[in-house]
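WARN retry 2 of 3 for item q-0093 after timeout on previous attempt; input resubmitted unchanged.
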Amino acid sequence: MMVVGGVCALIHGAASPLMLVVYSMMTDIFVAHELEVQILVDPNKTCINNTISWTNGSKYISETSTFSCGVDIEGQMTLFAYCYVGIGLGVLISSYFQITLWVSAASRQIQKIRRTYFRKVMQMEMGWFDCNSVGELNTRISDDINKINDAIADQMSIFIERISAFVFGFMVGFIGGWKLTMVVIAVSPLIGIAAGLMAMAVGRLTGQELKCYAKAGAVADEVISSIRTVAAFGGEEKEVERYDQNLVEAQRWGVKKGTITGIFRGYLWSIIFFCFALAFWYGSQLVIYTKELSPGGLLQVLFGVLIGAMNLGQASPCLEAFASGRAAAKIIFDTIDREPEIDCLSEEGHKLDKVKGDIEFDDVTFYYPSRPEVKILNGLSMLIKAGQTTAFVGPSGSGKSATIQLIQRFYNPKEGRVTLDGHDIRSLNVQWLRSIIGVVEQEPVLFATTIAENIRFGRPGVTMEEIVQATKEANAYNFIMELPQKFDTLVGEGGSQMSGGQKQRIAIARALIRNPKILLLDMATSALDNESEAVIQEALNKVQMGRTTISVAHRLSTIKNAEVIVGFEHGQAVERGTHSELLERQGIYFTLVTLQKDGTSKVAESTGRGSLRLRSSSHLSNDFEPDEVTSYSDQCNLKILSDGETSPEKEHVEPAAMTRILKYNQKEWPYMVLGSLGAAINGSVNPLYAILFSQILGTFAIRDLDKQMDQINGICVVFCVTAAVTFFSQFVQGYAFSWSGELLTRRLRKMGFQAMLRQEIGWFDDPRNSPGALTTRLATDASMVQGATGPQIGMTVNSLTSIGASFIIAFYFSWKLTLVIICFLPLIALSGVFQAKMLTGFANDDKKAMEAAGQVSSEAFANIRTIAGLGKESAFVESYEQQLESPHRSATKRGVIYGICFGFARCVIFMAYAASFRYGGHLVSSENLHYVIVFRVISAIVVSGTALGRASSFTPDYVKAKIAAAQLFKLLDRTPKINHTDGEKWDDFRGEIQFLNCKFTYPTRPDIQVLNGLVVSVKPGQTLAFVGSSGCGKSTSIQLLERFYDPDEGKVLIDDHPSDTVNVPFLRAQIGIVSQEPVLFDCSIAENIQYGDNTRTVSMEEIVDAAKKAYLHDFVMSLPDKYDTQVGAQGSQLSRGQKQRIAIARAIVRDPKILLLDEATSALDTESEKFSLYTVCFPPQTVQAALDEARKGRTSIVIAHRLSTIQSADIIAVMSKGAIVEKGTHDELMARKGAYYKLVTTGAPIS
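OK item q-0093 returned
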């Protein structure tokens, strides 16, 4: 396809030079006719036998030669008209194939590149993902690959066509007259060098600009993924600033790029004009004095070389696209060529026939590739026997999770080896190894599909019976059957529609269905309430039979019965034995157990839990949607996205009004006026051509030699002046419009991001507003809007002045001829309009289709650990490839239509020539019109025609820009359901909270009642604890208090003010929150703590003070960079306990009046938990005294499944199905012997 397309482009390129040959013959005939007319003015001369003679019959001789006459100008012109029509048809056919074939070929290649890139990224080892942020990968796969497409689609064929015109133009020149051609060519290297330099500079600058945009994309992705945390801490403004900083960088590079392009364009044009002056002056010497050239020959040489040079000049925008494409492709191909250290899709490696399950660590040393200075495992040696249950215990960050990641071969040890049944696991097939391992993580990741599909991820090809069996074993069957859609319930992005306990059970079912030889439980029951935990613990105990099981836990009661318990400290296994052996030894394990016993004097069972989480950059931080984001019988999201069922109808977006787009560019009016001035001058240069050209031709019909030379010298001087002016005006146009365009892009991106952060949290629950889709929209929409402003305005002004000036010239000299030619202009314009209309439709479909693919890639990159653990990379690769089918099909269809319009627009010009010269010949012969005027009018109109064509070639960009702008404006105009600006504020904020008969359903799941008449109040300074099983609405009540949502019925009163009348930032400023899965940002520890109060700059003293209260200070001081240590994307470089403490310090810095602790210590080992939970509120004296201290002036709401942490609360409220069943103090409720008593003594369900 590319070869045939290339050949057609070559033929198309040759058409213009071919036309010149016809043109030069035609010119000679016109000049001859004019001379004949001038001579025959004398009544004594006449034309006899095609020779001019005196009337007496003797021949008329002038300067030793006779004159021929009797030119049949109309007949000759008819012949030339046929030539033009023939060339026109050739152009129509060749240009159609040239475009269609190249566009189709490009869309195939882009599809291939996208596939290959995605497949390669999915093959990468975890260490690579630690060093590349998800946002950046998403930007690469959307923006950068689009840039490659721009470089290899129609641009490539147009480049070949222009180069072909350049070559043939010079050939025609040499055939016409080699001397003159050589003179002109001597100047050409100046043009070539400039074009080369420009391409290099633009490529470099584009690379830099892309880097900055990728960084901004990463910020946006991180912020939108963690939107609840950002909102809770009022960090919106701060995030917009952080985003804007990267945009400022990108803007600087963009302006540099525009300016350099302007300078080079000006340089190219001025060289072309100087070249003209020289060629014309020297050529006229050859015509007049040495008679080596005819006037037509001079035109043939001049135009031939000019067409060649112009096409070379016009090939430079293509070079710009190639340079951008190459810069983008380098990054993409570097990834594609990189060999992963651990290739999960490779077929290499042994697959053992029989697996016993002995795992041995032999002197293993390990650190994360992104933090090589911190040793995680330090010479770890231990043996895990087949069929035994081994438990790992130890403080947060001691390397427990790292060992699990090494067993799954997410990383390779730096020294030492890990063996399975005596085989180094590096010699085993990765997919096979992971297929015999079942993993349940502390924060399980579910994919945005149905429950059944999520379980199927565990093992392909399982039957429904097996799925049901697995859910029964995982104690998930009952809650699934209560959902309206049962197993077909959608779980939402990252499982956001399920409560923590439900997600956990689905994850356990997914692990069980694999029937694994090795079971890794990383705190598998951490997100469960007592009742579910007891049942799941039992299920886990059952399935551990005959399997090698490794369990990481802080909740020591869950691992008491393990056959071997290994104590970790500082990356080494310091002790191993059974529960009783280790108690006797009085080492680490003994300390942990003793601490837990102290903390649980009354409640024997539920004790300290939590673990270092697998460093997964796991799902969307639904920051405090941990456990009960959902309702009791947890819900499906109305199947909002189930394929084809009630999928959101494709929205039809009306293109935005140009006036509104320009309104956003208002501040840059001085730049735009200056740029338009430059563009207007550049536009009027073209019609000036028409006058100067025809003047050149006129000089050859002047018979007085001195007069002839004077005129010629004058015209040459005008050319030189034009050259100088053009240089400045092109520079001004490039510089001014790159400023206005880049400032607009930055402003729109920033406003778009601001508008997103302004929306209520419910808006982000809509699957259409997933982080992947939103970051893609931010990246593409704003930069597309530049297609209607910035440089495009320059092009439009340029074209309009060009058209205006040409028309004035044409009508002034010959209105009849002008009218004939004008008939063809609507055709040229129409083809442009039609092309635009067609492309609009495609742009819309393409965007939608690419967003679907973007969601797949975004979900895959964000949850890469879970996918790798399940060995599901290839499933995601297949799904992604399916999503690419429809954009590919529409691109091919678009190529055909684009080709037809393109061919038509190009051939119309030749038809126009045929008609206008034929009619021009008629006017010359019948109305004695001077032939100079014929040329002047035709060149003027053709110039305006090319200007029209140029304007219409921008229509696709312009149209895309208006649609992108409409999308953006729709976002900017949306009024959030929860207004951030209005509302009451008051000085003496006390912190009294009342929930009055609150009813609530999540907007994405209106059929599931989450809160059902919640009534509870807490006085200033009191502690209220919510207790209840997963999904009963505990976290939801906290979200209503934070005003992430408003209740559907009833009220939340804060100091007797209804929450929906309170100013949102003011309210959130009074609240500090520590959630179950804390979200950290990709910056330093100090900056994360400072995030607690975004209204001021938090001093270093306060940070250290808060860190000490949260028992974080000592750990931070042990790190090489101390408080400047980067925490990694979503805190991936820290253990879960360390993240939790940073989150606690962050809440302390805020000094809130209301404190919300959502399962806040679930991730801490007992030692840390004992202190930090209480120190959030008070200095650490004895626990009871400290709690009394804390009650002074601070209202606290605690959500816990572990009853030991909340016994001293003023009010304990037991929730079930979204309402309060009973409330009172611990002693009152124990005495009442109701639900709470039952829960404490047996862990029975509360319903």
